[in-house]
Amino acid sequence: xxxxxxxxxxxxxxxxxxxxxxxxxxxxxxxxxxxxxxxxxxxxxxxxxxxxxxxxxxxxxxxxxxxxxxxxxxxxxxxxxxxxxxxxxxxxxxxxxxxxxxxxxxxxxxxxxxxxxxxxxxxxxxxxxxxxxxxxxxxxxxxxxxxxxxxxxxxxxxxxxxxxxxxxxxx
Amino acid sequence: xxxxxxxxxxxxxxxxxxxxxxxxxxxxxxxxxxxxxxxxxxxxxxxxxxxxxxxxxxxxxxxxxxxxxxxxxxxxxxxxxxxxxxxxxxxxxxxxxxxxxxxxxxxxxxxxxxxxxxxxxxxxxxxxxxxxxxxxxxxxxxxxxxxxxxxxxxxxxxxxxxxxxxxxxxxxxxxxxxxxxxxx
Lengths: 171, 184
What we know:
A: 8 helices; B: Rna Polymerase Sigma Factor, Chain: A; Arc Repressor Mutant, subunit A; transmembrane helix (chain A); transmembrane (chain A); membrane (chain A); RNA polymerase sigma factor (chain B); sigma factor (chain B)
């Protein structure tokens, strides 16, 4: 092998071959990771799964069941702003899609506590991100303007009532 | 010195397997290392492939039926492991095996485990221009000094085919070296 080394120019670290046996044997004793996750399915499951799904869907009248998104706690100013924007967006959507008969109901007629309670009870299963998908650029511009017009007093009141860590208000 | 047949029997006997494996590693480690090193070029890669080779041998020794010689089987596993290693690495980098080999050769000049001179470096570059099988044949004949009969067993190719491939490989390498003004 020395001749081989000279011919090719390749070399090995000092003592490499002397230590190799022990390293290979040590590696053999390592517990190998399992090749699969161990889960199995009942026999014939995949053969019958299409029929089962189709049957269930028909029984359920082809209804789509939406999983309820867990309610999130607001913990930062950013999320509060999202909530405010979300509330305003919801109202914008509601008023656009369901105009009330006399057309006299406006944002001022519903107090923010009622809206917050409505959302916190999970009556509306939409996240702010989902609501945002219903809005176009003009809606966002309007929301930005509306947000800027919120008075400091109203904002402080909202934060006082909704913020988990009130120490943040000291700032 | 344990004979090959006896070693296989020991390897396949559960109570003797580990001790027999120790003998196997000790007997073949250098030969297989240089075979792998000539394919992958870098020491670290050769070390990885060599260990993978021995582990594969250990786990599959029960499947060895003795239809071929043990060393032939070992060389086949080592060759497959080395080529697969290069292909997998190339795929991970989104390049071809040839491009990977070029990258490896470019690093050879600064490789602490390459002490070749200008001619040896040029020879490696010339080998890299050959098709995969011609590279294998050239390395195994020129550097590892296998006989054509041994090569025939390992690579499952006729002696005539091997002689022809080696002859073509040498011719191409000489042409490459002459173009680059180096004499083999």
